[in-house]
Amino acid sequence: MKDVYILGIESSCDETSVAIVKNGREVLSNIISSQISIHEKFGGVVPEIASRNHVEAISNVTKRALEEANMKIEDIDAIACTYGPGLVGALLVGVSYAKALNYASNKPLVGTNHIEGHIAANYITNKELKPPFLCLIVSGGHTHLVHIKNYKEFEILGKTRDDAIGEAFDKVARVIGLGYPGGPKIDKLAKDGEANINLPKTHFENLDFSFSGIKTAVINLHHKNPDVNKADLAASFEKAVTDVLIENTLKAAEQLNIDTIALAGGVSANSYIRSKFLELEKTNNKKIYYPELILCTDNAAMIASAGYYNFINGITSNLELNAIPNLKIGM
After folding, report:
1. Mean pLDDT by 10 residues, the chain (331 residues)
2. Staple 10 to which of 17, 30, 188, 318, CB 3.0 to 4.6 Å?
3. pTM higher than 0.90
4. 131-290 — its CATH code?
5. Which whole-number Å values give the CA distances from 20 to 28, 84, 96, in the listed order?
6. CATH 3.40.30.10 describes domain 5-119+295-312
7. Rounded CA gap, 36 and 39, in Å?
């Protein structure tokens, strides 16, 4: 069978990334230009600044991706780009650039869902992984439990009703003075603390999540007692949210009679969350997969991988493709 080379473009938030992936699983290049240092002083991503920096970076990032893969645009089979969900201005930069490449090169355009990209990151790291499996997507904007029925069929089993887990990490980090980005900083601080503070957990009859209550509890506790041990607070917060993630994931696995579980999204890089899920391999006979760290955060290799499965299934786009900031999974 002929090899298929996909050029992926990711610009949904504050990373400008272009990658080339062979057959959905082999990364030939994955260039990421991060804006973290730019947005750090603002305490979070400023959409207008993110969009402007995408415009400045995308041509050079594309050139570097092609050079690292030792390829030309003529060697590419299709161009996959994130068209949602994400920040509308940031998305439009990547979509517009991909459409320009499509027009200039006559290579097929493949609009790709950012969340499906996070799922596909697991195919790159874990080449033996195949559907069906259960995937827990934990990121700055999403917390989803998804049944991956096949490469293009997804069923959302549960999702957050308020804050995404990554959003809760960032807000808690900001309140206790850690700054942005909050997730890695809480992960680091929690290693020096003990989970000895009782924090509330929200439970539903279904598989939905809620993190606003625990976030508010941490904020109120810190305001009432500014001298509270921040390392203990970080460790307690981390444990409480992880307990909820594991509880719902095990419920879903039992309902579906599935033993294969994958993690995806930026928060899946959290060392405590990873360690607790890996314990399920011993305690609950589950097989746990997760992407390597570079593929947890936003990157174009995951978009190229997801785009590959769109492309080989005949799903392509035309020049009317537009950014959809609230795009749902499976669309």
Report:
1. 95 95 98 83 80 94 98 97 96 98 97 97 97 95 94 95 92 88 92 94 93 90 90 95 97 96 96 96 95 95 98 96 93 66
2. 17
3. yes
4. 3.30.420.40
5. 5, 20, 18
6. no
7. 5
